[in-house]
Specification:
Strand order of the largest sheet: 1-2-3-7-8-9-10-11-12
CATH superfamily: Aldolase class I
Number of strands: 12
Radius of gyration: 18 Å
Strand content: 15-25%
CATH architecture: Alpha-Beta Barrel
CATH class: Alpha Beta
Length: 273
C-alpha cells in the first residue's frame, strides 16, 4: 500500500474538527487514501496466542498486544490487519490509562472489570491519547481501526448509565472526529454496533463489525453497508447461545460474513461457510 499523505494530514486536530463543522470535510478527504477492507473470513481475537488459518482474509487484533513484526508478517501473507482500540471507555491495565483526566472517567462498564466509561462529550480533554493510539496503529502497520464503544450514548438511555449525560449528537461529533483522524493517517475505520447511527455513518465508515446482532435483532439496520459494497462482519457469541444452524443462513442472506466466537475473544473464532 502506498503511504500517501495529503496536506490535510498536517492540519492540527482542532482545524480538522472545524472542517467537519463547516461542511468542508468532503473536499479535504478527496486527497486522502486508505486501503479498502476486503470481505471474507475474519479472525477476531483480542487475547491469547493467535493462530490464524490459511483461509482467513482479515485479522482483528489488539493494538497494544500485537507487535509490528506480527502485523508485517500478516501483511506479507496477504492478510488485512485491523487494530482494536477502545475509544469510549478507559481500561486501567493499559499503559496510557493514567493519561486520561480523572474528570472524564465515569461509572464502571458493567461486566468488564477495570473498565470505566469516558465522557465523550468532552473528548477534547483526551483527544491526544486517542490520536497517539491511532498513530501507533498506523506505525505498527495496521491498515484499519476498530473503535470499540462508539455507543456510549445508548448506555445513558439504559439502566446502566455512564455517569454523564451523553447525547446522540455528542456521540456523532466524537465519531466524526475519529473518522477524520483515522482517514488522515491512511487508516480505514469501521462502525461497531450502534445501529441507530448507521444512516449518519454509512457514507463515511469503511466497514462494520456487529456483536450479537442476530440474537438482538438488528442485522437489517446494517444492510446499507452491503448496498455500498462495504463488508459487514457479524459476530455471535457461543456464551450467549449462538446457533450456527440459525445464524449462518441469516448472515448469508444479508451478505454479511458470519463469525462465531467466545465473548472473551481469547480463542480462534469459527467463520460461517
Amino acid at each position: 500500500m502506498k503511504n500517501l499523505i495529503s496536506k490535510s494530514f498536517l492540519l492540527p486536530a482542532v482545524m480538522v474538527v472545524a472542517l467537519l463543522a463547516n461542511g468542508s470535510l468532503a473536499q479535504a478527504d478527496n486527497a486522502l487514501h486508505w486501503t479498502s477492507v476486503p470481505n471474507g473470513p475474519f479472525h477476531w481475537q483480542l487475547q491469547g496466542t493467535l493462530d490464524v488459518d490459511d483461509n482467513i482474509r482479515v485479522v482483528g487484533a489488539d493494538l497494544f498486544d500485537t507487535s509490528a513484526d506480527q502485523v508485517a508478517a500478516w501483511r506479507a501473507a496477504g492478510l488485512y490487519p485491523i487494530c482494536y482500540i477502545n475509544v469510549g471507555a478507559v481500561e486501567d491495565w493499559r499503559d496510557d490509562a493514567k493519561e486520561f483526566p480523572q474528570d472524564v472517567i465515569g461509572q464502571p462498564y458493567w461486566r468488564w472489570d477495570g473498565e470505566n466509561w469516558l465522557d465523550i462529550s468532552r473528548f477534547d480533554r483526551f483527544a491526544d491519547v486517542i490520536t497517539a493510539r491511532l498513530d501507533l496503529c498506523r506505525d505498527k502497520g495496521f491498515l484499519a481501526v476498530e473503535p470499540d464503544n462508539i455507543d456510549v450514548f445508548e448506555a445513558d438511555q439504559s439502566s446502566k448509565p455512564t455517569g454523564f449525560d451523553i447525547t446522540r449528537e455528542d456521540q456523532l461529533r466524537y465519531v466524526n472526529w475519529l473518522i477524520t483522524e483515522a482517514h488522515a493517517r491512511s487508516l480505514a475505520i469501521g462502525q461497531k454496533n450502534a445501529a441507530d447511527l448507521v444512516p449518519d455513518l454509512v457514507d463515511q465508515m469503511d466497514f462494520a463489525l456487529l456483536e450479537s446482532a442476530h440474537r438482538l435483532g438488528f442485522m437489517g439496520e446494517f444492510d446499507p453497508y452491503v448496498a455500498q459494497g462495504k463488508p459487514v462482519f457479524a459476530v455471535e457469541y457461543i456464551d450467549e447461545g449462538a446457533d450456527a444452524a440459525a445464524f449462518c443462513p441469516a448472515a448469508d442472506a444479508h451478505g454479511f460474513q458470519g463469525v462465531i466466537a467466545r465473548t472473551d475473544l481469547d480463542h480462534a473464532p469459527q467463520n460461517c461457510p
